[in-house]
Design brief:
Membrane topology: Multi-pass membrane protein
Keywords: Membrane, Transmembrane, Transmembrane helix
Main location: membrane
Helix content: over 70%
Number of helices: 13
Structural class: mainly alpha
Pfam families: EamA (PF00892)
Order of helices and strands: HHHHHHHHHHHHH
Number of domains: 1
Organism: Autumnicola psychrophila
Number of strands: 0
Radius of gyration: 18 Å
């Protein structure tokens, strides 16, 4: 694997998982629908003016635009909304992380049918090892005495389904339509525009765009907009161009342990011995999938 790809993986993992920390900071000031709408409204505006000044703002046709908008709706809108709704329902973050970590297994199981890329025994072993590491890391942190609604516990599965479909769709497009490939800035513009449109009505009618515009919230939003909504997703799509869907999906196993480490830095959360052991197992699993 090239050094540039390794660095891209590091950037993606750090930026992507910082979104959970940003959400924990931001949710006390607004609702999940409004938070996501504001993020993608800002991203859409930024990309609009960027493409306009570069003379790259153009209509790419209904078929191409609709494909990218659907991927964006799934990878941005549904994935984030389900995760934030679960957190807003006071579901323990460990349970949310564990459920979302089902995504690599789902991608591995379906990628052969969708992208025709074969999953080797070596990769399957890596996926299983990584999942064991996630389970070990999270199991010792779950508070089984804390109750939440059934909806809260089931909604993260929507994130799994959405990001799995989006990843496979994006990879299939990369393999089949290389000649008609759009630049990454145009792709992200259509994806963020679709996310903004879909989140507008729930943010308006359910939460009335209620926001406490305090300095802390503003700083969090700037990070979520630039680093996570733009930076992390650009890194992910670049990785999908370079690696097969299973290898990219396996990186989501790093979510729970990396997020726990970030929570230790941001909120002073305790790091347990089982966290370190779990992280080590996850890394071994990911190394198996990358070879």
């Amino acid at each position: 694997m090239k050094n540039s790809t390794i660095w891209l993986i590091v950037v993606f993992v750090l930026l992507w998982n910082s979104g959970f920390i940003g959400a924990e900071y931001g949710l006390p000031y607004t609702g999940p629908f409004t938070l996501i709408f504001l993020r993608y409204f800002a991203v859409t505006v930024i990309l609009f003016f960027f493409l306009f000044t570069k003379k790259k703002l153009k209509w790419v046709g209904l078929k191409t635009a609709s494909q990218h908008m659907l991927i964006g709706f799934l990878a941005h809108g549904v994935w984030l909304t389900c995760a934030l709704l679960a957190l807003d329902q006071n579901v323990p973050a460990g349970i949310v992380a564990l459920l979302v970590a089902l995504q690599p297994m789902a991608t591995g199981a379906l990628s052969g049918y969708v992208t025709k890329e074969k999953i080797s025994l070596h990769q399957w072993l890596g996926l299983i090892i990584g999942f064991v590491g996630v389970v070990l890391t999270v199991a010792f942190r779950i508070d089984f005495n804390q109750s939440s609604s059934i909806f809260g516990y089931l909604i993260p599965l929507g994130s799994v389904i959405a990001i799995t479909i989006a990843t496979l769709m994006q990879r299939k497009m990369e393999l089949e339509n290389k000649k008609e490939k759009l630049p990454l800035d145009q792709v992200l513009f259509y994806q963020s525009f679709a996310t903004m449109l879909v989140l507008f009505l729930p943010a308006l009618y359910i939460e009335d765009f209620s926001v406490e515009w305090l300095p802390n919230f503003t700083l969090v939003m700037i990070w979520l907009i630039l680093a996570v909504s733009i930076g992390a997703y650009v890194a992910m799509w670049l990785l999908i161009e370079r690696l097969d869907a299973t290898r990219v999906a396996s990186l989501f196993y790093l979510g729970p342990p990396v997020t726990m480490f970030m929570a230790w830095l941001a909120f002073g959360d305790t790091i347990m011995l089982t966290d370190i052991i779990g992280i080590s197992i996850v890394i071994v699993g990911i190394l198996f999938t990358q070879n």
